[in-house]
From TrEMBL, chain A:
Putative zinc-finger domain sequence ranges: 3-36
Subcellular location: Membrane
Organism encoding this protein: Desulfoscipio geothermicus DSM 3669
Gene3D superfamilies: Anti-sigma factor, zinc-finger domain (1.10.10.1320)
Membrane topology designation: Single-pass membrane protein
Descriptive protein name: Anti-sigma-W factor RsiW
Annotated GO CC locations: membrane
This protein's UniProt keywords: Membrane, Metal-binding, Transmembrane, Transmembrane helix, Zinc, Zinc-finger
GO function terms (MF aspect): sigma factor antagonist activity; zinc ion binding
Keyword Transmembrane helix: yes
Family note: Belongs to the zinc-associated anti-sigma factor (ZAS) superfamily. Anti-sigma-W factor family.
UniProtKB/TrEMBL annotation, chain B:
Name of the molecule in the record: RNA polymerase, sigma-24 subunit, RpoE
Organism from which the protein derives: Desulfoscipio geothermicus DSM 3669
GO biological process, one term: DNA-templated transcription initiation
One Pfam entry name: Sigma70_r2
Keywords: DNA-binding, Sigma factor, Transcription, Transcription regulation
The keyword Hydrolase belongs to this UniProt entry's keyword annotation: no
Region (Disordered): 183-207
């Protein structure tokens, strides 16, 4: 028997799964062949190391949580009835795909509907109203439409509106020639709404606006436009349909829509659609006792917060971090000792940063996986792969990024509080 | 009163949660242990073990008794493990729990009477062994966990995986060899020190 054949038998030999004659041959061989003996010993050790791992018991809360969960489920006899195709589809591996498909159909449907209604198919009272007026006085219609939707848009994503303003609205010729563009600036960012404006009131097309408006006012079939709206670059049309704007915009906004939304199909612990806001409270507190340090430290501590920095000279702020759910309670407590004034709440949107960092991390993880595979392949072929150095550098970066992400993720839970004591 | 599994299954199907609770208590250690070693951390193990029991509960009425309840349970657990990884690969998203769980506090500590140094060293070896397991393909990891950790026989594993004995035999062999190679790469595990940290067991009987 060759060494190779012996090696094939070693695993079964360890488990006593060989018949006696095979076992005898293996024993005989490893007694005389140092290489195979080494192979055997390493294999044996590998097995023993795994067998030597301690058993891990479930944490104490596991059982109760499971019981709680089970209680919320229908009895198994009932669930068994739901073995039809629909149930399987809904519960099975197609769940994510179906959900994604549903979202796409909804978007396409809603978009088509919206365009339709502008061409006369009337399904929504608001639209109906607009279209009616459209027939009488097109300028009026634009004005009305614009006063509703940009507000809705703005309330959902203030930051984006600001971007839009810089990019599109700060065009004086537009503003002069079309009353529509005097409305709240959110409109400007929504190129597609330009199509609407141009369509319903061709006269308002600004002479200086060049390509953008021209292309938008060009006659395009409704289906065509609906398709366009599916493209990642296009913002959802927010022309004069407030409800659609509200539901569609926030989903599409954070980061770049296309690629990521595709991945967000699965449910569970993804954070694809979550907005991460870091809240910051700035207040002035008057009439606190002479030396407020102890009071502030103790109160912050009482509500699970920490003091990050304290003022070194007058006019500086106390900076602390308080768990989001406790902030109001914290201020209530402070109110007992002094007067809280000028409360200003600011939120910084970390979603885009978080998205970028996470994408970068995923990129690195993909690279890591690839390197590990490469290394595995090389190892299987008995060669050195030479990726070890890159791999270890990569893994270091991964660790760092994970910490950064963890910090960002904690941001919504811990509110920054700046207190000026006067 | 110790009722057989199958009896408890019948009662559970009728909506007797206490009966199912007994089944859970009987198997939660095994399922959780498998999930923990498969995922490598507590947060994921908790999710996976919970998911497994929920699947079992919901599928109880479909348990026909063709195999033992334990075999059927492991089959569902194995599928849950695979599905979980597939889901992750699709999602490729980083969860916080994973990050939190990378903390050393979550590495189980040997409970025997060893000096702190020995405990620390043992903990380190175990961590490295777990790392090696994590690097294996899911099929290799799964079959090794069933064989080495759960102590299942080849026949039992064949029942769970619904494949032939020959397939089990060759897959275990390949999985062990892959593990051995991972351990060689780690360097210390298969040296003399590493060996001392293994159980030794039958090996010590060899010259």
């Amino acid at each position: 028997m060759q060494c190779h054949d012996i090696c094939e038998l070693l695993s079964a030999y360890i488990d006593g799964m060989l018949d006696s004659s095979q076992a005898a041959r293996v024993e005989e061989h490893i007694a005389s062949c140092a290489v195979c003996k080494m192979e055997y010993e390493d294999l044996r050790t590998a097995v023993d190391l795994v067998r030597g791992l301690p058993e891990v018991a479930p944490p104490p809360e596991f059982h109760d949580r499971l019981q709680q969960k089970l209680r919320s489920l229908p009895a198994p006899a009932d669930t068994n009835l739901k073995t039809g195709l629909l149930y399987k589809l809904a519960r099975g591996k197609w769940c994510g795909t179906l959900a994604a498909a549903a979202v796409i159909f909804l978007t396409v449907g809603v978009t088509a509907l919206w365009y339709n209604s502008n061409n006369g198919a009337i399904l929504d009272p608001v639209l109906q109203n607009n279209v009616e007026k459209n027939n009488q006085n097109s300028a009026d219609t634009i004005d009305k439409g614009n006063t509703v939707s940009p507000n809705a848009y703005k309330s959902m994503d203030g930051k984006k509106v600001a971007d839009g303003q810089q990019e599109y609205v700060a065009n004086p010729s537009l503003e002069e020639s079309s009353p529509a563009y005097n409305a709240p600036p959110g409109m400007g960012g929504l190129e597609k709404s330009g199509a609407l404006v141009a369509q319903s009131a061709p006269g308002t097309t600004a002479p200086g606006d060049g390509e953008q408006v021209r292309s938008l006012s060009a006659p395009v079939g409704a289906a065509d436009r609906a398709t366009k709206n599916q493209s990642p670059e296009s913002k959802h049309p927010a022309g004069d349909e407030p409800q659609l704007t509200v539901s569609a915009v926030p989903r599409a906004e954070p980061g770049d829509p296309g690629a990521k939304d595709g991945r967000a199909g699965g449910s569970g612990r993804t954070m694809e659609d979550e907005t991460i806001l870091a809240m910051e409270y700035t207040v002035t507190v008057k009439g606190l006792p002479e030396n407020p340090e102890q009071l502030l430290t103790e109160t912050a501590g009482k509500y699970g917060g920490v003091i990050e920095s304290k003022p070194v000279e007058p006019g500086q702020y106390w900076s602390m971090r308080i768990p989001a759910g406790q902030v109001e309670l914290f201020f209530d407590e402070i109110e007992k000792y002094g007067k809280v004034e000028d409360k200003c709440i600011q939120s910084n949107d970390l979603t885009a940063d978080f998205g970028r960092t996470r994408d970068k991390l995923n990129e690195l993880l993909a690279r890591e996986e690839k390197l590990l595979q490469e290394r595995g392949v090389a190892e299987d072929a008995g060669q050195k792969s030479g990726v070890d150095k890159e791999l270890s550098e990569l893994q270091e970066q991964i660790t760092t990024l994970r910490h950064v992400l963890a910090g960002m993720q904690q941001a919504p839970n811990m509110v920054t509080v700046q207190i000026m004591v006067q | 009163m110790h009722l057989p599994d199958e009896e408890l299954v019948q009662q559970s199907i009728k909506g007797d949660l206490d009966a199912f609770d007994q089944l859970v208590r009987r198997y939660e250690g095994k399922v959780y242990g498998l999930a923990y070693r498969f995922m490598g951390n507590h947060a994921d193990a908790s999710d996976l073990a919970q998911e497994t029991f929920i699947r079992i509960y919901q599928a109880l009425a479909r348990f026909r008794g063709d195999s033992s309840f334990a075999t059927w349970l492991y089959r569902i657990a194995a599928n849950a493990c695979r599905d979980e990884l597939r889901k992750r690969r699709r999602r490729r998203s980083v969860s916080m729990e994973e990050m939190m769980d990378a903390s050393p506090a979550n590495v189980p500590v040997a409970g025997d009477d060893y000096s702190p140094e020995e405990v620390a060293q043992r903990g380190e070896v175990q961590r490295q062994v777990q790392d090696c397991l994590n690097e294996l393909s899911e099929d290799h990891r799964l079959i090794l966990l069933m064989r080495e950790m759960q102590g299942m026989s080849y026949e039992e594993i064949a029942g769970v995986l619904e494949c032939s004995l020959g397939t089990v035999k060759s897959r275990i062999s390949r999985a062990r060899n892959a593990l051995k190679e991972k351990m060689r790469k780690k360097g210390e595990l298969l040296t003399r020190d590493g060996r001392l940290n293994g159980k030794g067991g039958k090996r010590s009987a060899m010259p």
